[in-house]
Design goal:
The chain has about 550 residues and is α/β, with parallel strands linked by helices. The protein is built from 16 helices and 20 strands. Helix 6 packs parallel to helix 7. The structure holds 1-O-alpha-D-glucopyranosyl-D-fructose. The site of 1-O-alpha-D-glucopyranosyl-D-fructose has 17 residues, from loops.
Length: about 550
């Protein structure tokens, strides 16, 4: 039985309190002029990350892939997609990041491979019942001629989760048809991923973000279910036949044993599970951390933020873990836009269904500035999604013909998907792709990206970029490694807490200005007047 390690005031490991910057490599920076991001571009922008002050970067999948799901369809886990570079260039990047004191977290996708993966090609070339088929979840169908799928499971992106092969058998794909699910009961599958972990650990990778960490084990009796899983949803029925099954923990323990053979490495779980199930993934012989999506899901009210922060910290402490904080990533509408929508608008549907005139961009940007002073103040590791430090909004008005997310096709054009948060980053105020590259980028950028580019914001003390730089520096200098947080009661619409020795964070999430208490102003999300904190604004005070 594992014992909970003693809780001390100071967090000692980099991954416990770091600021981690998420790079969606396809959209970060294009170094070879093909309109897609790549390692050359990423290497050319390392100084941006260093000047931001981040402790690590998490890079979305960079492996060989047909990019049917943005790289989450891997055809070769030990090779870099030629559009992004090479393994040698990845090693150069890792070394250059380390020279700047920045660690590198790779993205691992174990639940499924690409249908281009050699294993899947072997499986479909082999006849039914062949050993090669057993590495995947392939079964005969039901009904008189096997014409019915083995179960009524639906794919996350829409449509059935089973695809029929020419010889009549069916293969499982919880996501896209191009993403066949691996059979994690198979010893070769388990051995292969331990080898893949070692391959990248040996090349200097400091950690792994594990995709769909709760999905590898399935109930192989394939019971029908009456619930469809929406993208990025954790409210699955307990004992769901393919989410959060107890068998995943044995896999986690085997991976942790591999990481423990190396110095100072970590793995963080992308596990969309019920809050009370999450601690199971954080036992000391399993994951170091898991993504905490609750704050990302929270509505912009002091009460919801206060409750979620307290609950998350208590849950992490109960298992001797540390929390993570994330407001945006490559799968969700950017929070600068989310916070500009009325509380009753469901942002997951808003991109497709609107009402688009309900968006108040200025309000969203104002709240995003305050939100930065929340997440960067919290104890644990804070994830910053590329472009968040520039205050970028969701590009919700992309033309239909450029949509790339498999959700768009698989939902029968009823859900536009996630491309709006993946539009290439603007580095310069003008140019064919605002400095992203030298040609038109793979997703078109709006004109607003120019004035919001990194160059437009650098050196401007009132820019979002300067706010992130100042907050990260202050965090590092005052309380980053300190666990201590105590909530304060400054009113129902005010989120307030102390951090470390002497910092007080106050966020006015109400509609009226409030009077600020005594204290030396360290940072404010917007200029203050007359000792008052306006609505949707935040401050850090010392003393
Ligand atoms: O997304 C996670 C994901 O989609 C599942 O967790 C699912 O939404 C459901 O909520 C499970 O409870 C990851 C990646 O972030 C995403 O970009 C990929 O498209 C997806 O997995 C498939 O690899």
């Amino acid at each position: 039985m594992s014992t909970t390690p003693a809780i001390t005031e100071q967090m000692t490991e980099w991954w416990q309190h770091g600021v981690v910057y998420q790079v969606y490599i396809r959209s970060f920076a294009d170094g070879n002029g093909d309109g897609q991001g790549d390692l050359a571009g990423l290497r050319s922008r390392l100084d941006h990350l260093a000047s931001l002050g981040v402790d690590a970067v998490w890079i979305n999948p960079w492996y060989v892939s047909p990019l049917k799901d943005g790289g989450y369809d891997v055809a070769d886990y030990r090779n870099i997609d030629p559009r992004f570079g090479s393994v040698e260039e990845a090693e150069q990047f890792i070394a250059e990041a380390h020279e700047r004191g920045i660690r590198v977290i790779a993205d691992l996708v174990p639940n499924h491979t690409s249908s281009d993966h050699v294993w899947f090609q072997e499986a479909i070339a082999a006849p039914p019942g062949s050993p090669a088929r057993d590495r995947y979840v392939i079964r005969p169908g039901k009904g008189p001629d096997g014409a019915e799928p083995p179960s009524n499971w639906e794919a996350v992106f829409g449509g059935p989760a089973w695809e029929r092969l020419p010889d009549g058998e069916w293969y499982l794909h919880i996501f896209d048809t191009s993403q066949p699910d691996l059979n994690w009961e198979h010893p070769e599958v388990r051995a292969e991923f331990e080898s893949i972990f070692r391959f990248w650990l040996d090349r200097g990778i400091d950690g792994f973000r594990v995709d769909v960490a709760h999905g590898m084990i399935k109930d192989l009796t394939f019971p029908d279910i009456d619930s469809k899983t929406e993208l990025l949803e954790s409210e699955h029925p307990i004992d769901h036949p393919h989410w959060d099954r107890d068998g995943v923990h044995e896999i986690n323990r085997a991976w942790r044993a591999v990481l423990n053979e190396y110095e100072n490495r970590m793995m963080v779980a992308e596990a969309w599970v019920h809050a009370e199930r999450l601690p199971l993934y954080l036992r000391e012989d399993e994951y170091h951390q898991s993504f905490n999506f609750d704050l990302l899901e929270a509505k912009w009210t002091a009460d919801s933020f206060r409750r979620i922060i307290s609950r998350s910290l208590d849950a992490a402490e109960a298992v001797g873990a540390t929390s993570t904080w994330v407001l945006s990533n490559h799968d969700v509408v950017r929070h600068a836009t989310r916070y500009g929508l009325p509380l009753d608008v469901k942002w997951r549907k808003w991109v497709t269904d609107g009402p688009h005139d309900a968006l108040d961009e200025a309000l969203g940007s104002r709240r995003a500035r305050a939100a930065a002073l929340i997440t960067l103040a919290l104890p644990g590791s804070t994830y910053v999604y590329q472009g968040e430090e520039l205050g970028l909004h969701e590009v919700w008005e992309l033309p239909d013909e450029v949509l790339d997310d498999p959700t768009w096709e698989r939902s029968g054009h009823t859900e536009r998907g996630r491309d709006g948060c993946r539009v290439p980053i603007p580095w310069e105020t003008d140019g064919p792709s605002f400095g992203f590259g030298t040609t038109a980028p793979w997703l078109p950028q709006p004109d607003t990206f120019g004035p919001n580019s990194a160059a437009a914001q650098a050196g401007d003390p009132d820019s979002m970029l300067s706010l992130y730089q100042a907050a990260i520096a202050l965090r590092k200098g005052r309380f980053a490694a300190d666990r201590r947080l105590a909530m304060l009661d400054l009113g129902a619409d005010v989120l307030a807490f102390t951090r470390g020795d002497d910092v007080t964070v106050i966020v006015n999430m109400g509609s009226e200005p409030i009077e600020l208490p005594e204290g030396r102003l360290l940072l404010s999300s917007i200029p203050l007047e007359g000792g008052m904190l306006p609505s949707d604004a935040a401050v850090w005070l010392a003393g």
